[in-house]
Write the structure tokens for this entry.
Amino acid sequence: MPSSVMPMPKSTTASAAAAVSAIGLRKAYGDKTVLDGIDLHIPAGSVFALLGPNGAGKTTTVQILSTLISADSGEAQVAGHHLTGDPQAVRAAIGVTGQFSAVDGLITGEENMLLMADLHHLSKREGRRVAAELLERFDLTDAAKKPASTYSGGMKRRLDIAMTLVGNPRIIFLDEPTTGLDPRSRHTMWGIIRALVSDGVTVLLTTQYLDEADELADRVAVLNDGKIAAEGTPDELKRIVPGGHIRLRFTHPDAYRGAVTAFPAASHDDESLGLRIPSDGSQRDLRSVLDQLDSAGIEADELTVHTPDLDDVFFALTGPATTTTPTDSPKENLR
């Protein structure tokens, strides 16, 4: 595991207005420390994914930032408002969708929407207009008059987010929004999240699905044992774990033998005529390999670049699910 990583350019952090920022958030229940001094900076109009195993503190973070519970120490601002100094302004600026649907199954989808409109003190006329627009936006118009208990899991999730949007929040906390959904419904939800961000909404997403974070997030933080083990773009995170390589394959033995000589540090397979060259997956590294091949007059029949994915990052930073975190887990902050 490398001892250092390339930091995020300062201009990205400094120039982007923070929709959410936190310094030193701590929370404990008895002798159990859930959050142990985490820092966050979430630029406006971006998706920030918080990854971590069960019990890592993801939901606690969302609960603190949405003013549902108080931190024991630390400071945080949401939409420019201090959590402790102006919690009402924070609540007015955010929407929250938890792991478990807030939909009331005993009433219709439309009635759920209108109830939410009442909670936001919209007039009856305005409430009906907003409800109708959101039901149409989330493809729920045909089911609007049906009891929500008859909805599929994906429909309930869409209704849940539609209810969250009644107050037109600019910051949305999505706590494991696709848990229990089938692959098609998950992809539909991803499209909804992308559409929200394209409208300028900021999304803090907690998830255990690594592909979800890879697909959606501008930045990812891995939370483990109450601390942020690493943070960066998905590509930056993938570069901090070993295992990346460039694989070369040859059909002609002479070309293969020449490549073995040109890349003495590479592992090679005489049977398949293949070389595996350690690489960080960067363009610079790939260009270096191509230049060496050109200099040696060697042409590979197949070249593929293999980089670690977020699954590799997750397990490297948090350890196997059934064990504690290794003592040599990196604690770099890529920001």
Notes: The radius of gyration is 24 Å. The chain has a mean pLDDT of 86.
